[in-house]
Amino acid sequence: MLKRIKTMTYDSWANFLQIATVIFAAILIWVQIQSGKEKDLAAKADKKIIAEINLKVEQESLKRIEAETKLLNLQKRIAWRHFDNDKFVRVLEGRDKGNVEILYFNHDNEAYLLAYSIWMALQAAGWNVNSPVTGKNDDPLGHPLPFDLREGGMIMSDDARIIVAVSDKTEPKPYDKNTPLSTLLAAFETCEIKFIQTIPHERIRPSTGTIKIIVGSRL
Question: Where are the transmembrane segments (predicted)?
Fold first, then answer.
């Protein structure tokens, strides 16, 4: 064997080296290809992970935006339920005074505070108004009617308005007449207190000359 290797010609060695170089280059290329495939797979896996993370971040961001939007809408809806008492009283000053009874939804601290804020403002303006109570009417058949329906004869809207119930007739805009109802509604409107006027069923109607203010839950 050694004798054969010794007797190899220059051309044979050259051919051998060329073949060896080609084989080495092929192996190197194959290794690079395999390495590239592994890198591609790793890159695809990384892209998938990144896409999943971005999707979760986007979903959480949308949830946060939705929650913030709902909160802002709720705040706008109920902001009026904390009004400026001094402004309210100023509207009442110098105008005809009246008799008012105020009812509020029981077991609701916010409704209680709003009812008492209105009561104090009316008292300060010299109106004849008793302390707020939780209700006066019960269904004769014992049905568990909603508070606003039981006391005002109607259901509050989504804006959680106040029901202003009277015995004879409601008051159209503008609220500029020198009557107790017109004066009260002008004060409500000036302080952006949302309300609904109604003449309820005879059984739950306030007495003539009395305005009934019904404060329900804000939610």
Answer: 12-31
Residues 210, 129: Cα–Cα separation, whole Å: 10
Q: What is the maximal distance between C-alpha atoms in the chain?
A: 135
Q: What's the one-letter identity of residue 64?
A: R
Confidence of residue 142 (pLDDT cuts 50, 70, 90): low
CA distance 40 to 218: 58
d(CA 65, CA 25): 58
Question: In three state form, how does the secondary structure of 112-138 look?
Answer: HHHHHHHHHHHHHCCCEECCCECCCCC
Q: Quote the tokens at residue 14.
A: 């050259």
The structure tokens 């890159």 sit at: 43
Residue 219, amino acid: L
Distance of CA 98 to the CA centre of its chain: 37
Residue-wise pLDDT tens digits, 83-100: 899 999 999 998 999 999
Sheet containing 162-165: give its strands across: 128-129, 99-104, 210-215, 162-165, 195-198
Confidence at residue 80, expressed as pLDDT on a 0 to 100 scale:
54
